[in-house]
Amino acid sequence: MKYNIEKLTTEKQENKYLFFWGHQPNKDGSISKTCFSQWWLSSFDVDGITYKTAEHWMMAKKHYYLMTRKFSKKLFRPNLQPKPKS
Known about the structure:
Number of helices: 2
Shape: flat
Number of domains: 1
Largest sheet: 2 strands, antiparallel
Strand order of the largest sheet: 1-2
């Protein structure tokens, strides 16, 4: 079932959600709803870098954007920016 904001707010129906936790396969090796975890071991490559899980990729991206932002703040400190002409 697909959801969108209109459907969720206008239709009077019971919505079905899939709750899951954990990231381990079943003892018999079968895959269950735990495969939806960000920590599920399923390696993939992005731009030549292999990530073991989606969570590893997200952590790397957060680090990149936070460090880039921190660098930008240092680079563009108010006292280093040119003053506007009056």
